[in-house]
Design a protein that fits this description.
Layout lengths: L2 H24 L4 H7 L19 E7 L5 E7 L4 E7 L6 H16 L7 E6 L4 H6 L37 H13 L3 E8 L5 E5 L3 H11 L3 E2 L10 H8 L4 E7 L4 H17 L19 E4 L11
Parallel strand pairs: 3-4, 3-5, 5-8, 6-7
Antiparallel strand pairs: 1-2, 1-9, 2-4, 6-8
Helix pairs in contact: 1-8, 3-8, 6-8
Bound molecules: zinc ion (ZN).
The site of zinc ion has 3 residues, from loops.
Length: 305
């Protein structure tokens, strides 16, 4: 990123952060409710008229246990490949909101993905989001279901990790997204009790985590503080060597405030010229072709559950 632009963005970000801290004190503590009650005003989305916007590809990666589509929006055709995932945990809707906001921003600001191919999967666990549960409709924690070397069966008292690695259709959908996009870096958006929010990294992603921290002012953490076998970061970051960030948003902050706090961090992540991690070619192949369902921007309202 050009230094002048970085400075400009940082200045804007610091201003936004100051505003958001004030807003945080007014938050109601229910990030899910905030998401649904905080429709973004149209004025926030300046840009060309809808018919002039570039067509963003929508790709159905698969279906959830209950048959809901899991969709990836794909922007640009550049050589830099980036994947953004939201909502692996259904009871963390702020991550869905922020991922949707990013997709909407990219639709309205096509220059932001010049030279980039950016895939955004805003709702990785649509059944969990609908039910307000961490797990999917099988009761499986999807972020313990990836085929990482450290995958293990859950303790009998815990939430299921699945019958075997990648047993769940939602996990398979995200794996398909990775295989399609071949990302050089991944950010997976979650939420955590305020005070523990951070840019958590797996694999060779510490420079990216520090880059994001310059914009969102979140701590950089190599360890979230508890084991995460079968996590997306464990598989993609540690096993595959794809620099991976788990962006842990603070709960109790509205989705809109989280977006404002993280917009520049996410755009810096997408730019990341200074990080330039090597592209990793996954050994495995896509076994099931994804179905390209449309070429028009999605019409679902931003604040929909
Ligand atoms: Zn989570």
């Amino acid at each position: 990123m050009p230094r002048a632009r970085a400075v400009a963005i940082l200045t804007v970000c610091l201003g936004g952060w100051a505003l958001s801290v004030g807003a945080a004190f007014a938050a109601d503590g229910l990030d899910g409710a905030s998401v649904t009650r905080t429709p973004a005003p149209a004025a926030v989305f300046p840009g060309p008229a809808p018919e002039e916007r570039p067509a963003a590809a929508r790709i159905e990666l698969g279906r959830s246990v209950d048959g809901r589509p899991i969709v990836m929006e794909l922007f640009g055709e550049g050589d830099e490949h980036v994947l953004v995932v939201g909502g692996i945990h259904g009871n963390e809707p702020t991550g869905v909101y922020v991922a949707r906001r990013l997709a909407r921003f990219l639709r309205d600001h096509p220059k932001e993905f010049d030279g980039r191919t950016i895939g955004v999967v805003p709702e990785a666990n649509p059944d969990g989001l609908s039910r307000g549960t961490r797990a999917n409709a099988h009761g499986v924690d999807l972020n313990r279901n990836f085929p990482s070397e450290n995958w293990c069966r859950a303790a009998s008292s815990g939430v299921s990790h699945g019958t075997h690695p990648a047993s769940e259709p939602e996990t398979q959908a995200i794996l398909r997204a990775v295989k399609m996009v071949q990302p050089q870096r991944i950010v997976d958006v979650h939420s955590i009790p305020a005070g523990f929010h951070c840019n958590n990294y797996d694999g060779p992603a510490e420079p990216l985590a520090r880059l994001m921290s310059r914009f969102n002012d979140y701590p950089v953490e190599a360890d979230i503080g508890y084991p995460t076998p079968g996590a997306l970061g464990s598989w993609a970051g540690v096993d595959c060597g794809i620099p991976s960030i788990t962006l842990e948003l603070p709960r109790g902050i509205s989705g809109e405030d989280c977006w404002e706090n993280n917009q520049d961090a996410l755009l810096a992540f997408a730019d990341a010229d200074e990080a330039q991690p090597e592209r990793v070619q996954l050994a495995s192949e896509v076994t099931e072709p994804a179905h390209r369902v449309a070429t028009a921007p999605p019409t679902a309202p931003l604040g929909a559950p």
